[in-house]
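Q: I have 215 residues here and want to know how they pack in 3D. Can you give me a structure?
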Amino acid sequence: MKIYAISDIHGHIEELDKALSLINLDQDDTMLVLLGDYIHGHDSYAVLDRVIALEKKYGPDRVIALMGNHEAAVDEGRSSIDEADDVKCDADDAPYLKWIHTLRKYYRTDRQIFVHAGIEEEAEDLWEYGTPDYEFFEKYPPQTGHFYMDIIAGHTGTAAISGDPDFHNVFFDGESHYYIDGSVWMGGRIPILLIDTDTQEYFEVTSEGNKRIKG
């Protein structure tokens, strides 16, 4: 199986479409996991429409949408879909609100955990029960180091994690963490992580080809 992962789109529909053009979901052995934060940017509704359409076309087992902290704010009534500081949702938002409410907190394979922000790693193999909801969506600062599974997360920009303000690619900590929030409003692109679960190899997908991430 080949699993693609992207995160933190924040209403950037053009950048999302460019990323999707590099992802081939027409092959049966491919999946796409989206790590949340679809909204609160240039065109939140267009991004939601695109993700929902992908989920309908390929099915929720092959296009897996997770909840980010921005969707959690909408789900909890603390924000509208289009504006982070406006809690009034229009009646036309009802289908979107229903979809947001169904978003998963995380997705796991035998070797990987996909999550918007992070998990309670001190809980070790009980992390599914020991992680409070806010930590799935808002864990900060991002954790690095060894864990018994690989963790793929967004939420915190890779420029901040790497300490390089010009770095907007996939960040690998050399141990067990892959961070993929490229701060699209600054980097102008959405990083794409590809995992080949047969070989357990990780790649960053670019317009120039797949670049293997050394582990």
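Q: Anything worth noting?
A: Residues 168 and 182 are 4 Å apart (CA to CA). The chain has a mean pLDDT of 95.
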